[in-house]
Amino acid sequence: MRVIGVQEYGGPEALAAHEVPEPHAGPGQVRIAVAAAAVNPTDTNAREGAYGESELPPPHVPGMDAAGVVDEVGEPTAELDTSRRHVGDEVMAIALPQRGHGGAYVQYLVADADSLATIPAGRSLVEASTLPMNGLTALQALDKLGLEPGQVLAVTGAAGTLGGYVVELAKDRGLTVIADAADKDRDRVLGFGADHVVPRGDDVAARIREIYPDGVDGLVDAAVQNELALPAVRSGGGFATVRRWPGVEGSDVTVHSVWVFDDYHRGDRLDDLRRAVEDGVLTLAVADTLPAEQAADAHRRLAQGGTRGRLVLTF
Ligand SMILES: NC(=O)c1ccc[n+]([C@@H]2O[C@H](COP(=O)([O-])OP(=O)(O)OC[C@H]3O[C@@H](n4cnc5c(N)ncnc54)[C@H](OP(=O)(O)O)[C@@H]3O)[C@@H](O)[C@H]2O)c1
To answer: How confident is the model at residue 52 (pLDDT cuts 50, 70, 90)?
Structure first.
């Protein structure tokens, strides 16, 4: 089968099409004929080898989001129930580059039965591919912060895919949301349902404190501003880092590390995310689609910044 990956870690130019043996669904697994794989910032890390040595042989295949059509169903096992899946089902899945069944930039993705869900009704496979990884991340961040309805959440990087999902899911949980945006993204972020939008930038914490002088109850730092964003949080509040920032010594803000790799087996949550799209809670946004062979261009475009919605590779 055709995969897009790197023989040696490197820049976008290292990405190329490779032929590898076709995988098949074993017990507890299904095989997905991938139609769409979203391109996420983390894919650039996988491409560069920033996650350390892979458990899998080269070519190293990035990609954590896939959507496609089930074309093989393995026998059910005690832990992994495949009986609900049928050939022809349209599904979305989270994938793990470097281990397990490998990344999502592949023609056929073998997936554990609990790492996927049916795509949202009325949505395309391309749209659905933008949901699994960042949706699971947004849920994990909100759960770790554990805010109650009426409490105040700040979100940096709110114009991005993760930030947008966090804003929308937080509003659905009854939180008050203050988010950042450049002028050009203000309407986009208000459209996600943010109650307040402050200008983005290094002074984001001061901008948030202008509206909440005592600080907010929690913050999801999707812009990875770390110590610049931390002062927005009140004493005793929570800070969700998506890049394993350790926090500041002596601070009484609890830093929660959000790591979506831990949620590979949360097909149940993918199903919650499906429902959230169908209920109009979550908005799926596709910036552009490119043939998978143009993955290097997609990585370059993502690295330039300014992409709104997800770039999606099609197979
Ligand atoms: N730990 C995990 O499990 C996990 C899971 C998912 C995502 N992540 C991480 O979460 C981050 C966000 O992911 P994403 O997919 O949402 O990326 P994205 O779509 O590129 O969104 C990031 C947003 O932040 C904005 N931004 C960049 N620098 C900023 C700054 N200094 N102040 C305010 N906004 C800024 C970007 O704007 P411009 O485009 O204008 O630069 C963009 O709108 C990434 O670092 C990703 O790797 C981690």
So the answer is: confident
Helix axes 267-278, 132-145, angle to 10 degrees: 100
Amino acid identity, position 202: D
How many CB atoms within 10 Å of residue 23? 17
What is the value of pTM for the model shown? 0.98
Amino acid present at 283:
T
Cβ–ligand 1 contact at 131 (below 6 Å): no
Closest to 292 (Cα-Cα) out of 71, 33, 10, 87: 33
Which pair of structure tokens corresponds to residue 47?
A: 């491409």
pLDDT for 38 beyond 90:
yes
Q: CA 138, 139, 145, 146 torsion: positive or negative?
A: positive
pLDDT at 149 over 90: yes
Topology adopted by domain 2-131+284-314: Quinone Oxidoreductase; Chain A, domain 1 (3.90.180)
The response to whether residue 51 sits with its C-beta less than 6 Å from ligand 1 reads no
Count of other CB atoms within 10 angstroms of residue 145 = 23
Identify the CATH assignment for 134-260 out of 3.40.50.970, 3.40.50.720, 3.40.50.740, 3.90.1150.10.
Answer: 3.40.50.720
Q: Quick one: pLDDT at residue 311?
A: 98
Q: In the chain, list all ranges with CATH 3.90.180.10.
A: 2-131+284-314
42 Cβ inside 6 Å of ligand 1:
yes
